């Protein structure tokens, strides 16, 4: 088959092409999931502050934590990432979409899976939280639904990789555009990561929840879950980095400072994202401490690409500020286009991510982890990472991308300008007290942290109250975002405009061309996973183990 | 690859910071034996109350080497026993397991922290230097009574 045969323009309805429709459908599901999950969140924040509200009950609280986690961490992120992936492929690669049928089938499969999982959660039959550690046992539709979401995302990955392949055949010798390179890294990380959770679902949880198998080994399930669970955070983060490298410098009116280092950053994430999962299991019995140490070192190494990113992005912003006439050491900061909600969202998300990054280094530190493991420090931490670096960047990206896809004007612009600041303020108010209560031992995911008014628990009260205020500010911000999106859906029509990707300060030429060999990178990453997980799992399977029957105490 | 001078400094600094983190963890692991609870021992979760390894629930036992061993079991939604007394300044070895779902065990305000996974025995050794009344919490979601699952550790003045 010739390349031109594949990219031949498919007949599209005039107006919005298939790429755009797919992108809109995916981003639409993401925003809907985000709205529902935000409503769950405000209730939880108030509950932890011990406010007596009508309908407040333990069952309701834990159900809503499950819904919030699943909808935010899995549904909102995955659908947004798929939708934005289509946007990047459309604008950076050009051409029409091959495999349209696969793309739509994957989308509907993921939607069906989401509906099934959310339905049983809301029915109170799957209160197992989004980590679903067995032997807590949910309704089979929960596991099958989430599996369908992942299978749908595999279909999307296939469509994206095919689009890249077609482009490479049609453009021999050209460098892969950096934003597409970043997305390819995202997809490779995702495919390698989901092997773990697919094994957990298909070989353990689904047959067990259907009653075919009586028992399940919970430590093996935790290993397979975290094989997936940590690279999942890079699946959330890398598309945000694509925005930081690929869209932010252009939106701020500057150039990307160092293109080749951007490639190095994404390549490092491909290599190191997965062989790190045991740092979530430092406190687990049944896993040897030497393997935990190996995963610790890998985890610390993966800080490196984020350090480099911090420099590159700030330097790119400085170029933008100076190109806009900024003077002096800090004068360029004032000259940045703060009125552009994409720019303010991304800069504020980066500031919050700096807190998250340092907290993450503490979490990863082998011994120090014992002070904060499973305390409220952990949700405090990941709300500044996935809840800020990813979520706030994604919201900012929607302000640019959604009007462009709809060919409509962004509505309620003043609200869109205030929204990132509200998120920033709300997140500081929510997350700092949540970190602090964790340091003195308040567990995460508790309905009511009173503990018979033990003095330690009493010392948490003012902090949980403060974080509830943060929760309210965050909720207002989420509401602003959803309203802006809803009004934009019906805004006045405008002409089609291309999305502008960042120009590098210097053309990369052939620098680091080896990094573009994605097959080689994938093979190296797979080899590292084989070392980091192959031996520990094989060793685990050798020992006498006792399975657990399921429990559903909800 | 031509890298900007300031960026080069930054990259070296980042590398040095990470190397320092790795060195600190390496030294504390090798020289001080500091490592997270990683005991590997399995048990039939439905039979823990008849297993001889957990026959002393609630009575701390003094071992020949002077270490005090505390055995505890976790179940929805309590610890057995839910109050433990140990002397300050002595080595205390906790041996814990779960009878049903995955639970957590944390002594608030200390670094005593472990997961309790059914089918596995968790074990760690620590020393409490400050006498006092410590809150023990379950920190892994275990069902709708998760937030009431707690206990107390009383660290008494050494005699």
Unreliable stretches of chain A (pLDDT < 50, length at least 5) are 1-14
By DSSP, the count of extended strands of chain B is: 10
**Residue-averaged pLDDT of chain B, rounded?**
93
Q: How many whole angstroms does the radius of gyration of chain B measure? A: 20 Å
Spatial extent as radius of gyration of chain A: 23 Å
Q: Give the amount of beta strand of chain A, in percent.
A: under 5%
How is the main sheet of chain A built? none
Helix content of chain A: 55-70%
Instruction: Please give the alpha-carbon distance between the first and last residues of chain A.
Output: 55 Å
Broad shape of chain A = globular
Give the helices and strands of chain B as they follow along the chain: HEEEEEEEEEE
What integer is the average pLDDT of chain A?
92
Could you spell the SSE succession of chain A in H and E letters?
Answer: HHHHHHHHHHHHHHHHHHH
Total strands of chain A: 0
Task: Give the largest interface pair and sizes.
Answer: A-B, 78 and 68 residues
Approximate shape of chain B? elongated
- Please report the number of helical segments of chain A: 19
| Helix percent band of chain B | 10-25%
Helix segment tally of chain B: 1
Content-based structural category of chain A: mainly alpha
| Poorly predicted segments of chain B | none
Task: Please provide a written account of the structure.
The complex is a heterodimer of chains A (554) and B (159). Chain A is mainly α and 554 residues long. In chain A, 70% of the residues lie in helices and 0% in strands. The longest helix of chain A has 36 residues, at 58-93. Mean pLDDT of chain A is 92; it is low at 1-14. Chain B has one helix at residues 5-32, and strands spanning 61-62, 68-75, 78-80, 83-87, 91-98, 103-107, 113-116, 122-127, 132-137, 150-156. In chain B, a hairpin with a 2-residue loop joins strand 2 and strand 3. Chain B is elongated, with a radius of gyration of 20 Å.
């Amino acid at each position: 088959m010739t390349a031109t045969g594949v990219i031949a323009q498919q007949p599209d309805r005039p107006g919005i092409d298939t790429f755009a429709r797919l992108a809109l459908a995916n981003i639409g599901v993401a925003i809907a999931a985000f709205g529902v999950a935000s409503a769950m969140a405000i209730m939880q924040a108030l509950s932890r502050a011990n406010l007596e509200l009508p309908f407040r009950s333990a069952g309701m609280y834990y159900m809503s934590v499950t819904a919030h986690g699943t909808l935010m961490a899995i549904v909102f992120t995955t659908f947004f990432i798929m939708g934005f992936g289509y946007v990047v492929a459309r604008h950076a690669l050009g051409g029409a979409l091959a495999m349209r049928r696969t793309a739509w089938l994957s989308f509907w499969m993921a939607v069906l899976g989401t509906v099934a999982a959310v339905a049983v959660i809301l029915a109170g039959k799957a209160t197992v939280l989004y980590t679903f550690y067995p032997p807590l046992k949910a309704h089979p539709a929960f596991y099958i639904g989430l599996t369908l979401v992942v299978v749908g995302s595999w279909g999307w990955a296939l469509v994206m990789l095919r689009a890249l392949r077609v482009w490479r055949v049609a453009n021999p010798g050209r460098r892969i555009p950096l934003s597409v390179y970043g997305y390819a890294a995202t997809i490779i990380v995702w495919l390698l990561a989901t092997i773990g959770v697919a094994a957990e679902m298909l070989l353990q949880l689904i047959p067990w929840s259907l009653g075919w198998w009586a028992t399940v080994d919970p430590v093996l399930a935790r290993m397979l879950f975290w094989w997936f669970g940590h690279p999942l955070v890079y699946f959330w983060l890398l598309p945000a980095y694509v925005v930081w490298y690929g869209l932010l410098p252009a939106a701020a009116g500057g150039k990307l400072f160092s293109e080749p280092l951007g490639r190095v950053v994404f390549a490092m994430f491909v290599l190191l994202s997965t062989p790190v999962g045991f740092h979530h299991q430092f406190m687990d019995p049944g896993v040897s401490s030497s393997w935990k140490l190996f995963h610790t070192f890998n985890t610390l190494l993966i800080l490196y690409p984020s350090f480099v990113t911090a420099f590159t992005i700030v330097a790119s912003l400085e170029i933008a500020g100076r190109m806009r006439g900024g003077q002096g050491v800090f004068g360029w900061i004032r000259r940045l286009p703060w009125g552009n909600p994409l720019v303010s969202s991304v800069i504020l998300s980066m500031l919050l991510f700096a807190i998250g990054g340092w907290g993450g280094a503490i979490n990863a530190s082998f011994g120090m982890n014992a002070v904060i493991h499973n305390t409220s420090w952990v949700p405090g931490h990941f709300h500044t990472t996935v809840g800020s670096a990813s979520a706030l960047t994604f919201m900012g990206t929607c302000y640019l991308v959604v009007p462009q896809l709809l060919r409509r004007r962004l509505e309620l612009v003043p609200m869109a300008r205030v929204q990132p600041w509200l998120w920033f303020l709300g997140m500081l108010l929510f997350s700092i007290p949540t970190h602090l209560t964790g340091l003195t031992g308040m567990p995460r995911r508790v309905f009511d942290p009173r503990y018979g008014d033990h003095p330690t628990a009493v010392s948490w009260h003012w902090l949980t109250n403060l974080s509830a205020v943060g929760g309210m500010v965050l909720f207002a911000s989420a509401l602003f975002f959803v309203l802006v999106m809803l009004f934009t859906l019906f805004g006045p029509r405008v002409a089609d405009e291309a999305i502008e990707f960042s120009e590098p300060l210097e053309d990369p030429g052939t620098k680091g061309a080896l990094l573009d060999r994605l097959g080689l990178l994938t093979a190296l990453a797979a080899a590292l996973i084989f070392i980091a997980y192959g031996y520990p799992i094989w060793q685990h399977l050798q020992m006498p183990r006792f399975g657990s029957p399921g429990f559903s105490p909800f | 690859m031509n890298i900007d001078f300031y960026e080069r400094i930054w990259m070296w600094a980042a590398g040095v910071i990470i190397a320092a983190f790795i060195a600190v963890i390496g030294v504390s692991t090798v020289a001080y034996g500091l490592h997270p609870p990683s005991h590997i021992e399995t048990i039939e979760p439905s039979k823990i109350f008849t297993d001889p390894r957990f026959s002393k629930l609630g009575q701390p036992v003094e071992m020949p080497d002077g270490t005090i061993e505390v055995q505890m079991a976790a179940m929805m939604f309590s610890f057995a026993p839910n109050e433990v007394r140990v002397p300050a300044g002595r080595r205390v070895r906790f041996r814990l397991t779960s009878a049903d779902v995955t639970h957590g065990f944390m002594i608030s305000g200390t670094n005593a922290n472990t997961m309790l996974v059914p089918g596995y025995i968790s074990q760690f050794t620590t020393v409490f230097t400050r006498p006092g009344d410590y809150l023990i919490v379950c920190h892994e979601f275990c069902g709708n009574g998760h937030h009431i699952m707690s206990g107390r550790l009383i660290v008494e003045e050494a005699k």
